[in-house]
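Help! Submission page says 'invalid entity' but I think these are all valid:
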Amino acid sequence: MTPPPVALAASESKPQLGFWRGLRGVYDIALEGMVWSRRSLLMAVMLSLPVVFALLYRYALVARLPAKIRGFDLYGVVIALFYIRNALPLAALFYAVSLIADEVEDKTITYFFTRPISRASILFGKFAAYVVTTLTLTLPATVVTFFLLTTARGTAEISAAAPHLFRDMAVIALTLIVYGALFMLFGVALRRPVIPGLLFLFVWELLALLPGYLPRFTLTAYLRSLVPHRPPDEGLAEVFGQTLPLGLSLGTLGILLAVFLGLAYGIFSRRDYVLEQ
Amino acid sequence: MSGAALAAPIEFERASRWYGPVIALNDVTARIEPGVIGLLGPNGAGKSTFLKLAAGQLRPSQGEVRVLGRPGWGSPEIFHRVGLCPEADAFWDGFTGIQFLTSLLRLTGFDDAECRRRAEAALDLVDLLPAKDRKIGGYSKGMRQRVKLAQALAHEPEVLLLDEPLTGMDPVNRRRVTDLVKRLGKAGRTVLVSSHILYEVESMTRRVLLINNGRILAEGDVREIRDLMDEHPHTVSLRAKDPRAIARAVVGQPHVISLAFGDEGEWLTVQTAKPDEFYGALLEIADSAGVREMYSPDEDLQSVFKYLVPK
């Protein structure tokens, strides 16, 4: 066995690693842990449910349903109702609140804090791993669902529908990023962030179904305004026809994203999490 | 403060840390010079808080903690030159030993080839190279302790902070780590080792900082405390494949006060009046008896502190 090179001269002072280099290192570690987790397995099942539905429709239901129920309409329901309104916010909640909280609870945060990297690299490296993991789970399922549903009665409608697919994929990414940033903020600021997160999703976000200005205080109103699909059961929102302008939606979501990330970083950089262990 | 006054690698200047109403460290002033120094105190004395402040993991509520001339808190750049072996048995369990070390070395700024080289050297140093491709989740307690130590050593830091580093290690690896710590100290590194077991610290250094109730009680030679300790029996708990073989080997020795077997048949608890003699005898049979884990409760040290600190 080689003894340690203990006679090494005292090293000169070096600066901390650059932001991107630190972020890349944290991202690699976080991705490794995230991809092969039980949480990802559970989320993969949940986010793939539309594929199961599409297979069922294509091979069992399509012959029994009237021709006016188009596969593309069902795909629209999957995107607007299942993904944007329910599954993606839920996936964001269960991943993003634990990005830092799990490391603190497992006491592994110490390994990040004892490296010459900034806290910004740690936080945003973890966030990047979350975005990549959830997109990897969601986008293939979306594409498969799209093709299974829109080609169930032939390939006639696929060329007209294809541009929607790309737009929907962009909105899916934005949904995961914005909700992820919000729930990451919950995770760094609150000791038990899951319950407040669930309340936000299933109580606060219902404001989007009300008339007037109230929907503007929700995230879902802006996100739903970005997808062209209008699901049939939107209650009062359907009556009052709430669709916010594209520019307003994108601008507001951009500002909110910056606020959520900025606040999360502000809290994370000042707090000594070791105390909570 | 003048530059000369800040020359020590670790300096506490009237540092206090409290958690809500609880004072964990109270107005501590200390200078940790190069070499090995033991931070000795019973559980709850403030050792971990002291180490966490030195490792920049906690912000002092009052006063100042400087490491290599910079504030410990909020100076990530010091971790090119500081290594911490934390007390907690915490890992990313899905990682293999080599993956764990290379990932952390990458965060210290080394390229891939250098990460691999350093990771293997550090694992070799703690005798884990044969297990490098196994997942840490499947390591024994002693192996986990050693891989934790390896990550603290791999970037060859000038300042090494070791929080109860020998916990759970078998006698052979204890000896190996003890020798390594002594070598690092002789080479001019600053090694601060916390422990609640006097004999552990004594095997690495004679310089100790005595800490209790959040205050540094004394700094000095471990032998003075040792003299006090000899009045109290020392307790050692061992987990071994064949604890009866150990019992047979030591039962007739005059320093052994009592022996007791644990419920599961793998544990043996020994009370001895002369720990040095007991550890010497144990080392001879540790391999054949299959000793896997060893720890010492802190009642002995607690009793010395009661003796040292009048109410």
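Support: the input was valid. A stray whitespace character was the problem, and the output above is from the cleaned input. DSSP finds twelve helices and no strands in chain A.
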